[in-house]
Amino acid sequence: MLSEKDIFIGEKIPTHRGGILTILYRITDESNRKRYVCECSICSSDKELWPLGSINAPKYNLTHGNIPCGCAVNPKWKEFQWEVKVKRETEKRGYIFSGWVNGEFKGDKTKLLMHNPETGNTWNTLSAGKFIAGQGDPKTKHHLKQRKSDQHYRELFESSGKFPEGTIFERDNINKDKFDCY
After folding, report:
1. What's the gap between Cα 161 and its chain centre?
2. pTM value surpassing 0.70
3. Are strands 34-40 and 20-28 parallel, antiparallel or unpaired?
4. Distance, CA of 118 to CA of 174 (rounded, Å)
5. What is the arithmetic mean of pLDDT over 34-56?
């Protein structure tokens, strides 16, 4: 028979993304605190990112809406999970990931050692969070966002019929992606 302390095992808690956390068992961490190991109906299907035991939290957190998996509003990713995420993204893009800069892990601010075989560029200025959000090789960034000529935009504005004849268009001095007209 379960003791009073273990009645929480088997409980089901809804997550913010529509998943269900099932409380599997209780552990005691290295600081002698009790934590409950959970399984998420969504996250636990990815065994590499969420191996058994990686989704765990104190009872208080679980009963007060703090979700300890990827379904959280703002997930707290561990170092091994960032590494999995970065490696998956580098494979998609054809990059080579060599690790953290100076071996230092700083969450989403961790700088990555990266190489793009396509451009031959190697860099270490990109953070893990920005890489996962879509940033990449600084050499290709400039090729992707080449600014069209001022003449191109003048012709585009004039042909729209929305500006009176004689309107002058000049590129903004502060934000070079905007035009002033007068």
Report:
1. 43
2. yes
3. antiparallel
4. 34
5. 96
pLDDT exceeds cutoff 90 at 155? no
Helix (H) or strand (E) holding 155: helix 150-159
Q: Residue 1: how many CB atoms within 10 A of its CB?
A: 3
Query: From residue 103, how far is each of 34, 88, 100, 106, 142 by CA, in Å?
Result: 31, 19, 5, 10, 29
Tokens 């809804």 appear where?
14
Token pair recorded at residue 17: 């993304």
Helices (H) and strands (E) in the chain, counts: 5, 9
The rounded distance, in Å, linking the Cα atoms of 59 and 138 is 45
pLDDT band at 123 (very low <50, low <70, confident <90, very high): very high
By three-state DSSP, how is residue 180 classified?
strand
Contacts of residue 10, Cβ cutoff 8 Å, sequence gap at least 6? 22, 23
Mean pLDDT for the stretch of residues 66-86: 95
* Cα–Cα distance, 36 to 28 (Å, whole number): 9
What is the model's pLDDT at position 88?
97
Contact, 106 vs 122, CB < 8 A? no
Of 44, 113, 57, 55, the C-alpha closest to 83 is: 113
Least confident of 27-31, 38-42, 105-109, 123-127: 27-31
| Dist. CA 106–CA 128, nearest whole Å | 9
Query: Which tokens go with 175?
Result: 């934000």
